[in-house]
């Protein structure tokens, strides 16, 4: 209901602006050298509620187009996506590469002039209209080389996935993701520096919300001036803070699963509605497989998991814990793949076992010795899991 009320308020504000008369000049005027004639997709929303987004399609002619978003009483987030720059990613979705993405924040009643050009595999642009706009363009310009590298690497990852999951090396893909993360850390470092040096500016609150590191977010949030932290972004910052605090706890939970630590007990419901309690298997070796029907690497590893179940199923209890999933999908896949081990559904809230075990990626396999003592935690479809199991069963 809260979001609906916000959307209604936003719409009423927009209508109020439209009824006050026509502008002599468009609020946003864009000119980009090298931009193809054709559709340009524009999306804008109040920074207080990005779900209240307005989508529009414009036509670029001679590299130019303009528009006047319905301006309310709070800054807007503007995203511009030339149709010619859209690419299909590995999930089959159309998106614009980071190097060609246009996004900025504008104040109410601000006049924005964007001038850009395609150079060195990147869409470069400058913003005019206020010092805030110029600061945003300057920050983006300082990392444009990194954005270009990121986009090229992301295309490489998409191409690999196009070969099919059975034809690519998970370790190699993971290494590419690590490099992608490193480049994004460079971008976020520039944003973090802005926040530290402009603690009382609303832009700092917006750049704070871009952060992906829990440590960085929580540190920067504490340094914000109260006027920013408790201002128009108060709700979004509070939600993000709760998320990052939970993520910090997730990391602490993962760090606690050291060798010989006693694993947390749990009771979950299997796909037939029967309770499964981990402590019932305390006298045996146990494998916990955190997975999902949506996880291609989990599915790819099932034949090898079945082989090891046949190999050690009399000595080891295998429990598959389906996470972020629907019961019917799990039931269908278990039946289709003829999975012989226990299959249970992960819980929610205090019974979210993936959270209690600090699971940050899928699949994650946990090997427990008798007494529910941790032997090994393995992220991904890694041969180390099978090698460890072989060594224990000798």
Summarize the structure.
The protein is an alpha+beta fold and 394 residues long.
Describe this structure in words.
With 394 residues, the protein is α+β, with helices and mostly antiparallel strands. It is 41% helix and 24% strand. The chain has helices at 2-18, 131-142, 144-162, 170-197, 202-208, 214-223, 226-229, 234-255, 296-300, 302-312, 327-337, 353-356, 383-393; strands at 28-33, 38-46, 54-60, 64-67, 76-82, 87-88, 94-95, 102-106, 112-119, 122-128, 267-270, 275-277, 285-291, 316-322, 342-345, 364-369, 373-379. The strands form 4 sheets. Strands 12-11-15-14-13-16-17 form a 7-stranded mixed sheet. Helix 3 (144-162) packs antiparallel against helix 4, helix 4 (170-197) packs antiparallel against helix 5 (202-208) and helix 6 (214-223) packs across helix 8 (234-255). The termini are far apart. Mean pLDDT is 91; it is low at 1-23.
Strand element count: 17
Strand content: 15-25%
Q: What structural category characterises the helix and strand content?
A: alpha+beta
Q: What is the overall pLDDT average?
A: 91
Apparent shape: elongated
How large is the radius of gyration? 25 Å
Distance separating the two termini: 59 Å
Element pattern in H and E: HEEEEEEEEEEHHHHHHHEEEHHEHEHEEH
Q: Main sheet?
A: 7 strands, mixed
Low-confidence stretches: 1-23
Strand order of the largest sheet: 12-11-15-14-13-16-17
Assembly form of the protein: single chain
Total DSSP helices: 13
Helix content class: 40-55%
List keywords for this structure.
394 residues, alpha+beta, four-stranded mixed sheet, 17 strands, 41% helix, disordered N terminus
